[in-house]
What we know:
The protein has one domain (2-56). The protein contains two helices and two strands, in the order βαβα. The model has no long low-confidence stretch (mean pLDDT 92). Strands 1-2 form a two-stranded parallel sheet. Helix 1 (13-22) links the parallel strand 1 and strand 2. It is α+β, with helices and mostly antiparallel strands. It starts with a strand and ends in a 9-residue tail after the last helix.
Amino acid sequence: LIIAAGADQVVSTKAVEKYARSLRLGSLLMIDGAKHEILQEVDLYREQFLAAFDAFVPGSDDPTA
Length: 65
């Protein structure tokens, strides 16, 4: 899983997209409007990141795990 910020001014979104296409397995989530520090962003962007992370990592959304 690659999660990228759509409005990133530090990392090239085109380079991230190109790299993601080169992977045999995996997926890219581009969070439109988010900047480089997604977890320091407003709730809208942070929640998208956390939802994708929780869906990708088994047990990450289980508070008892």
